[in-house]
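Newbie here. two chains, one complex. Structure please?
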Amino acid sequence: SAVISQKPSRDICQRGTSLTIQCQVDSQVTMMFWYRQQPGQSLTLIATANQGSEATYESGFVIDKFPISRPNLTFSTLTVSNMSPEDSSIYLCSVESGLNTDTQYFGPGTRLTVL
Amino acid sequence: GDSVTQMEGPVTLSEEAFLTINCTYTATGYPSLFWYVQYPGEGLQLLLKATKADDKGSNKGFEATYRKETTSFHLEKGSVQVSDSAVYFCALKKSSSASKIIFGSGTRLSIRP
């Protein structure tokens, strides 16, 4: 399985500001995914990021609010823009790794609180 | 559309009790099925998986069998420990690699010493 790290692990931000979350993988992967987990809720997919192409967003999520970069096969960023308290969540990246393309492995998450 | 339904929590058990967390799914085709675990303050960890009917996934004393006839993937453990206290998510994924994972709502498990 892949080893995934995220930065920051947590942050407290003011309304109206933006935060960029980094996701680093220890091996090259084609597909990277960003999820949101609102307090006490399950996970919801925000977008899928392939290297070299635009991210694909799920219904209810837009690029202006959650811009994603995927500059290479081991790294991605998710920005949460113009934040409001409703954006307070855990944000997780995940990857499909190696031959197990039916399995996704998750990073430790970034716990975001917006005041 | 595809979906996963799991029993609502919280579930509270005494140490060494038998655990069952029910999970059923709705999906076309032959999805892979997963149990993920989220310990307090941490991200998700893959607990076990099964990729075809009648497969049994197992890890750390937990087991789940892929039952296509009942579209179920119930999680079981014979003797739980305090350290098993966590939130457990049942999930499915279609066979194509680009498809997303669909998660159940999660079941919070608390084990009393």
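Moderator note: Chain B has no helices and twelve strands. Chain B touches chain A at residues 32, 34, 36, 42-46, 49, 51, 89, 93, 95, 97-98, 100-101, 103-106 (CB under 8 Å). Thread marked as resolved.
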